[in-house]
Amino acid sequence: MFQPKTLQEMIMPLLVANILVGMGFWTSKKGRLLNIVYSVICLVTYCSLMKLSMEYLGDYYLHKANSLGNMTFQAIFYANICMTLCLIPCGWLRRKHIKAAIMRILMCEKTMEQMGLQKNYRKLFLSQLYALTFVVVIFVIFIAVNYDGMFPINTPVHIRLILICASTYPIILLYVSDVSFLHWVRYSKVRFEQLNGLLQGMLTTTPDSPQHKRVLKMKDEWNKTFIASATQQDRRTKDNTDVMRAVKQVHLELIKSTRSTNEAYGIQILLSMTISFVFITSLLYYAYSIFWLKLSNEVFRQEMIPVVGWILFYSSKVLVINHMCAMASIEAANTGDIICELYEPSTSKEFRAEIRDFTLQLIQNPLIFTACGFFNLDHTFIHGVIGSVTTYLVILIQVGDLPNGNKSPNSTITYNGTNFTMSDMFTTVGYP
Length: 432
Description:
Helix content: over 70%
Shape: elongated
Structural class: mainly alpha
Low-confidence stretches: 61-73, 211-230, 402-432
């Protein structure tokens, strides 16, 4: 099995994935030029596929949908085009932030190696492969589930391939960015865990021997043991002071490198969270409206399975990204609790001064993930999304034009036709 030895080898799966979708990262001028040319080719190809899709399906839905449905169909296509035109240039612009983050990470890796901490490159390398493989499997499953409803009847095979490529490419771009961002979040979490483990190894207090009991015991045995253990205690205190100083420097560099990666992927995360919120709300409302229709069991199952699948799909994005960011922030903040336990009267003044400086550094430089500064990525955002989706869903249900027993048959038929058209339009562009 491949054993990565450098940071560049460790992130090779992400580099390959970003290159394939047109968002590669190169340090040399020749590599950057090739990357830009390839990205432009991807953009031109995608725009051509979208144009063909609109020409083919536009006429098809123009005869089936009303004006509102036709406008929605075109809006979804244009939204995909705008998202793609935004994500690929963001891949070019993030080069500066990623380069700065990698330089800081290399400094941290060198210092942590001197401290005796493992690099764990193999574990991080495999986590990227698992994440990218999982994304590919999910896309294959969802395309297979929605395949029957994605196209009009008797659609030619080449048109089906064009529609699949046009509908899935923007989502692939978005999820490659998400996986890349989550890799750096997980990397920072692993490194903070290693630093906290190193600091916990310096603790001398235990639940059975807390600090106040140790101080009283030290006072009772002061005259007996002071002379014998003075030299050994001074040597251990000096070593702990050096370790504390090194951990403080590495911790700060990790905070800065993580901020750089957060800035690099800020626009992508903002788009990802916004799109997930909009589609979760829309799909929940659509699922609710299906229950009002008198459908057979087979038709009901065909309508609901893709909707429920895509709701889980977008909900998982919000949960995973925010949970990983929250756990990394919590792990970075846990360092403060550990160093406060190390602040003991029995330690030297220099060691306690390092702890005070470290505490001030943690207060001034907390690890906070944001989406371009609009909102923080943590568990609070998950709570906010749940509350907002519930609120908007209640509003849509209250003002929505759902059929009931008092409606005339003509209005019910009109709604059903519109509802069927909306389902076709969602599935046609790669959404349920």
